[in-house]
Design brief:
Blueprint lengths: L1 E4 L11 E3 L2 E6 L4 E10 L4 E7 L3 H7 L1 E5 L4 E6 L5 H5 L12 H6 L5 E6 L2 E13 L8 E8 L4 E5 L5 E4 L2 H19 L2 E8 L5 E10 L4 E8 L4 E11 L6 E10 L37 H11 L10 H8 L12 E5 L2 E5 L4 E3 L4 E19 L8 E7 L9 E7 L2 E8 L7 E8 L3 E9 L3 E8 L2 E18 L5 E8 L4 E3 L6 E2 L3 E8 L3 E18 L5 H8 L6 H48 L6 H45 L3
Parallel strand pairs: 2-5, 3-17, 15-23, 21-29
Antiparallel strand pairs: 1-6, 3-4, 4-14, 5-13, 6-14, 7-13, 8-9, 8-12, 9-10, 10-11, 15-16, 16-21, 17-19, 17-20, 18-19, 21-22, 22-25, 23-24, 26-28, 27-28, 28-33, 29-32, 30-33, 31-32
Helix pairs in contact: 7-8, 8-9
């Protein structure tokens, strides 16, 4: 036996080619499927595989061959697919979308053409074609100008032309070929791949490849019975869109999503090459020299490691291992691990006609299933009927919908994610109207847990305590187990309860409910955060509140009380200075009025006595103002000394 990775060569179809029927199909969850074909080939006979055009990229990327009987694969040919734009570019004209006939003829200047005008005809070389715009008096016209054999230029209205023939038969064939290319691009939907080999005797050949396929879908039935377990039935839905029948194929279904991508291997690639001229044939251009960073960048690029190679498709492993695993239940598929993937192998050959779908059982097994209630939606007062599924089947359960049957009746529906062996998951399938839940939120005042002082900054670590109380009322005559999903908020910590489970977004608490009972379940959390203040910006009263905190040490309390006392003295000195400044301002304004009155009275005879009275009052106020200035200066001096003492105390203080 020889397995060969295909090398691709372009060629024509073989005269005789055998079809290889599909023998095995493996369907995945990421949009591709693995197919294996095999058959008997006669001496010198080639094998033919037909594919859709959209499948060719994946075929060329994944095709492998396996041959028994002594022959050797000598080559592989397939129908090429040159891009339509590239094919049309080879013609001396282009037929654009809705292009007028005059525009087509204008591209063929110099070509000889014969125009039939009723019973007459005119022949000549095309000079050009044009389209004249129309108006209200005359319609739009298309015209062509010809140089006839007499040497005369004649313009012909193309609307009067009944037929056109090119004198050059080669140009006539080019038009026919151009249209044939357009038709071929629309009609050729399938491509053939031919596998050639040496003239060996009759031999068996197997071809394996990946092509795009619909993902297989899974659905389940969960049937509750007495006891801690329930029956789980799994059904796979597969779709055959390949365009050919799957007749008695070996079918496997793989749960998991390996990496897959499309690489453009089928369409020929063309690279635009630069036009090179000799230096003396073009003018000199200014040279711009790049900085040294360009060399450094190039060196870095050379040192960068190459990207890792794409991993080999897991489907190839599935195809090559050929390990048979018997099923303990005839109607269920055999399962096995494939690395990080899991394969279900349908035990009996499967037939699915083209353009049809099939529903196949792949699981029928007891599973641990505990009935619960789940409350996670605070917008509803009712929890949901639920089940806790523990995957003790030894298989991976692919994600999909589950229909629940309880007591022989329909119970509801749920969705489940892919469940690996040994894992468990909660599913909700109905609303429980026999249980009602309300919530009440309570928040206590913030509590300062710690106080720290360093370089004039006071940091208070504060805890905000919040409690959410669930009031649960079970009105049914049966006991229940309730799972409360409480949001897990960043920065919050549970204080007095331990959850049974924790998810990425919530805590789960399990509550046992007796029949016809009302219970309260409180969840208390705290959020600890730090507040930092500059002591110079705090009032003495605000700072004093921190000295009463029980978390503060005795030495820290005394040092902080000293700072509070200094800030109070500074505040008192500042208040004294402000009072003095206020009194001085009032006296200054009163003096200004007295001076204005004296000036006015000096101009009036007989007012000397009043002037003297105002003068004496002005002198008294001046003496008082001098005393106020001394008092203000003393208060400011005292404040400056206290501030210096406060700064020195804060610089030394640390706790």
């Amino acid at each position: 036996m020889r397995r060969t990775i295909c090398s691709v060569a372009l060629g024509a179809a073989a005269l005789t080619a055998a079809d290889l029927p599909v023998k095995q199909v493996i369907l995945y969850k990421h949009g591709v499927g693995f197919f294996e074909r095999s058959g008997q080939l006669g001496s010198g006979e080639s094998a033919r595989l037909d594919f859709k055009t959209s499948e060719m990229n994946d075929v060329l990327k994944s095709l492998t061959l396996e041959e028994r009987g002594g022959g050797k694969v000598t080559g592989l040919r397939y129908d090429s697919s040159e891009p339509l734009e590239q094919k049309l570019r080879e013609f001396p004209f282009q037929l654009g979308d809705k292009q007028p006939l005059s525009g087509v003829l204008d591209q063929l200047k110099g070509a000889r053409v014969e125009l039939r005008l009723g019973a007459d005809s005119i022949a000549g070389a095309i000079v050009g074609g044009r389209e004249t715009p129309g108006d209200d008096k005359r319609p739009r016209q298309e015209q062509v100008t010809l140089l006839v054999d007499s040497g005369e230029l004649r313009t012909v209205d193309l609307s009067a032309v009944a037929g056109i023939r090119f004198a050059d038969s080669k140009l006539q064939r080019q038009f026919q070929d151009y249209l044939a290319v357009l038709v071929g691009a629309r009609s050729k939907e399938r491509r053939s791949v031919y596998i050639d080999s040496t003239d060996a005797p009759s031999r068996q050949i197997t071809a394996s490849y990946m092509i795009p396929t619909p993902v297989w879908k899974s659905s389940y039935r969960l049937i509750f019975d007495k006891g801690p377990q329930a029956m789980l039935e799994g059904w796979a839905i597969v779709d055959n869109t390949t365009g050919e029948d799957w007749t008695k194929v070996r079918l496997s279904l793989v749960s998991g999503r390996p990496i897959s991508f499309i690489s453009q291997l089928y369409e020929p690639r063309y690279i635009e090459r630069p036009v090179a001229d000799l230096p003396e044939e073009r003018a000199a251009a200014p040279v711009v020299h790049a900085g040294a960073v360009a060399g450094a960048r190039a060196e870095m690029a050379r040192k960068m490691p190459s990207p890792p190679a794409a991993p080999a498709p897991m489907a190839m492993q599935a195809a090559m291992e050929r390990v048979e695993v018997s099923s303990t239940i005839d109607s269920a598929a055999a399962g096995r691990e494939l690395g990080e993937l899991f394969e279900y192998r349908i035990p009996n050959p499967v037939t699915v006609r083209k353009s049809e779908s099939a529903m196949l059982p792949f699981l029928q097994q007891k599973i641990d299933a505990r009935k619960l209630l789940i409350y996670s939606n605070r917008n509803s007062q009712h929890p949901t009927n639920a089940a806790e599924l523990s995957n003790n089947t030894g298989k991976t359960l692919d994600g999909g919908p589950i229909t629940i049957f309880d007591g022989g009746a329909y119970g509801g529906e749920a969705l489940v994610e892919t469940l690996k062996g040994g894992d468990k998951r909660l599913i909700s399938y109905a609303v429980d109207l026999g249980t009602r839940i309300t919530t009440l939120f309570d928040s206590k005042g913030s509590i300062v847990r710690e106080v720290h002082f360093r370089r004039g900054l006071l940091t208070a670590r504060t805890a905000a305590v919040e409690t959410l109380t669930y009031t649960i009322r079970n009105v049914d005559q049966k006991a229940k187990t309730l799972i409360l999903e409480h949001p897990a908020r960043p920065g919050y910590k549970l204080l007095d309860r331990k959850p049974s489970e924790t998810t990425a977004t919530s805590y789960r608490f399990e509550v046992k409910l007796a029949p016809v009972v009302e219970e309260r379940f409180a969840v208390t959390e705290e959020r600890v955060y730090d507040n930092t203040f500059m002591v110079s910006n705090l009032t003495p009263e605000g700072l004093f509140s921190y000295t009463q905190n029980k978390a503060l040490s005795e030495a820290g309390r005394k040092a902080l009380e000293r700072i509070v006392d200094l800030k109070r003295q500074i505040a008192a000195a500042e208040a004294e200075a402000r009072r003095g400044e206020a009194e001085a301002g009032s006296l200054t304004r009163d003096q200004e009025r007295l001076r204005q009155n004296i000036q006015s009275l000096n101009q009036v005879s007989g007012q000397q006595q009043q002037v003297q009275t105002y003068a004496r009052r002005l002198a008294e106020q001046e003496a008082k103002l001098a005393g106020l200035r001394d008092r203000i200066a003393e208060a400011q001096q005292k404040k400056a000394g206290l501030e210096s003492e406060l700064n020195a105390a804060m610089e030394k203080l640390e706790f």
